[in-house]
Amino acid sequence: METTNIMIVGVGGQGSLLASKILGHLLLNKGCDVKVSEVHGMSQRGGSVVTYVRFGDKVYSPIITEGEADIIVSFEPLEAARWLPYLKKGGRIITNTYKMDPMPVITGNAAYPEDIENKLMEKGVRVDAMDCLSKAEEAGSSKAVNIVLLGRFSNYFDFTKEEWLDSIKACVPEKFLDINLRAFELGAEK
């Protein structure tokens, strides 16, 4: 199996680390060699968070360099644009469309860029954009955006729904399980 490179990018507090944990669990259960590396930065203050997930028959390094990512899973459109140099030619971005203003926008020193998804597509990037927040709220909690996005992401792999759900059950605390299972289902809907 050739090595597949996935970047999960977002802003601190959005649940990207749980999403990478669930993905890692699934891949290990499928017998893949998996390497995961997390970069938190100023995540507790709303800064960027990136997780590298690499899997295949044999993976030697957890780090993804520019031009290597097969898929970027983005919790926020501006983060998708920020990490675009890491996407390989022909790669795909799966992104939440809900915008979180970064500090320069909040303070009035900058404007949030408009129409990011279309600008990415104009550059030849395959973009799958979805309002994950409304789906998460439909599932029962705005905090389930990460699992909605994971559900959307699941459409690009041959793993069964049951395999995904088993990994969610293994990684999510029991009291939040029903909401997260519903969030996954809503995200996976085509």
Biggest sheet layout? 6 strands, mixed
Broad structural category: alpha/beta
> Would you state the CATH class?
Alpha Beta
Whole-number average pLDDT?
A: 92
Q: Report the helical percentage.
A: 25-40%
- Could you tell me the strand content as a percent range? 15-25%
Shape: globular
The CATH architecture would be 3-Layer(aba) Sandwich
- Helix tally? 8
Describe the structure.
This protein is of the alpha/beta class and 190 residues long. The chain has a single domain (4-188), classed as Pyruvate-ferredoxin Oxidoreductase, domain 3 (3-Layer(aba) Sandwich), CATH 3.40.920.10. It has helices at 16-29, 77-82, 103-106, 116-122, 132-139, 145-154, 161-171, 177-188, and strands at 4-11, 33-39, 48-56, 69-74, 87-96, 126-130. Strands 2-3-1-4-5-6 form a six-stranded mixed beta sheet, sandwiched between helices. Strand 4 (69-74), helix 2 and strand 5 form a beta-alpha-beta unit. Helix 5 crosses helix 6 (145-154). The protein is globular, with a radius of gyration of 16 Å. The two termini are 27 Å apart. The mean pLDDT is 92.
State the main characteristics.
190 residues, Pyruvate-ferredoxin Oxidoreductase, domain 3, alpha/beta, 6 strands, 8 helices, globular
